[in-house]
Design brief:
Length: about 140
């Protein structure tokens, strides 16, 4: 995974360094990478800088936290990857572009959660547990 989105955007203090925020950080990076390589989003990339794509990925991942929380607490039976998030971020986005972004967001979700099957950290099942991963990242950088 490439570090496209700053991990510091997912916490304000040590109390925010929880596994759910780490998962969202990983998801944001996967989403950003997926947008950068999607054949359907060539025009989107032409109109948006790498920093803007990273900012959108950050926003989208943070919006996903509510859906993840609702699923974990039983308020919802699903994780919603919603076009509403795209339109909230960019109200001028076309329907076709929003659909392409949602497809990429779903792919990034699948890629991120696939890694969870072998990962011992259990970020989604122990979402509100503190994790040293943010501090480790700050000390050592992203592992290659």
């Amino acid at each position: 995974m490439e570090d496209n989105v700053n991990a510091g955007n997912f916490y304000q203090d040590d109390g925010d360094k929880i596994k759910l925020n780490w998962f969202c950080y990983e998801y944001a990076n996967n989403l950003c990478g997926s947008i950068k390589t999607s054949k359907k989003l060539v025009q989107y990339r032409a109109r948006h800088s790498a920093a803007q794509i990273a900012d959108f990925s950050l926003y989208f991942a943070k919006r996903m936290r509510k859906s993840i929380y609702d699923r974990q607490t039983g308020k919802s039976g699903i994780i919603a990857i919603n076009a509403q998030y795209v339109y909230e971020y960019d109200h001028k986005c076309t329907h076709k572009q929003a659909q392409a972004l949602i497809e990429v967001a779903q792919t990034a979700w699948d890629d991120t959660t696939f890694g969870c099957t072998v990962c011992p950290n259990r970020c989604l099942t122990e979402a509100f547990e503190l994790t040293p991963m943010f501090d480790n990242l700050a000390k050592t950088g992203w592992p290659s």
